[in-house]
Amino acid sequence: MSLLNDTTKKGEYKHLNYTERTQIERWLNVDKKKPKEIANLLNKSIKTIRRERKRGLVENLNSDLTVKLVYSADIAQEKYDYNMSAKGPDLKIGNDIDLIKKIEYKIKVEKKSPEVAVFETGANITAVTVRNYIDLETIFDIIPGKIIYKKERKSKNSTKRNCDKVPAEKSIDFRPEAANNRTEYGHWEGDLVIGRRKKGAVLLTLTERVTREEIIIKLPNKMSESVAKAFNQLEKKFKKRFGTKFKSITFDNGVEFRNYKLIEQSIYRDEKRFEIYYAHPYCSGERGSNENNNRLIRRWIPKGTLIDNISVKYIAKIESWINNYPRKMFDYKSSNQILALL
Known about the structure:
Elements: H1 18-29, H2 35-42, H3 46-55, E1 57-61, E2 67-71, H4 73-86, H5 97-108, H6 114-121, H7 127-136, H8 177-180, E3 187-194, E4 202-208, E5 214-219, H9 224-238, H10 242-245, E6 248-251, H11 260-264, E7 275-278, H12 288-298, H13 312-323, H14 335-341
Parallel strand pairs: 3-6, 6-7
Antiparallel strand pairs: 1-2, 3-4, 4-5
Helix pairs in contact: 1-4, 2-3, 5-6, 6-7
């Protein structure tokens, strides 16, 4: 595994035309060719052919009155023309093949968001336009939701549920204002990224609220003892600087974080090394910075990946990639660049 290896097959970035659709109709309905064979014949990706087949499926009534799904070139062309017209006349990317290649490369290979891809290419379009093209599946060879998550806007007035399984003083309601307002460095959000199995190795992810700095630590399991040992390692690593780097951690209500006394306990002194707070149940938005960084991790470690087989070196590369990732909220500066200004 390597962050720099690109195994993505490069396409021609040319749309299917009506003639090609009539060929696909014959190959699918008469010759019974498979999508892979058709992709090779047309020099297209197999994903393109599969999406095209899905686009043109219609019900056909057989002589024995049974219904069979077949591909229709006419129906597929009508849907294609409608999708293209739905973009409106002012979209500026359709004929710019070089720009399409650059943006798709940044999204698929460099794992950048549409916002960052647009910024780094200097494209005269908005990230919303790029996301719309991805949803339409007409310009980019990117499956919606596979690489780029859809942006979800949550109401700020959503009802918060009481945190009744932890001490009242450990609720996020008692977190310092400096942490809530992001005016002081050292307040973090934490979570575990789970692999393929409920048991086995996991990733402890920590996100600093001011800079979005990320720390990722591989744990053998999701026990509270393993979480505490990870912070023991951090306390040994940062030594005297630990107290200024870690002032509070906000977790969800998972059982792996419930033993707050064990996790808070310093290995050097008979006192707390930081304060733990818990978000309200079912309110992941209260740890939104960490959730967003976890999504960045998922670009390199998709859901269902066996984390036991992932090396510490590879995890360190992901951590470095996140901390050097340009962020729109910081005028496209990275977390490391913001840290340097503190």
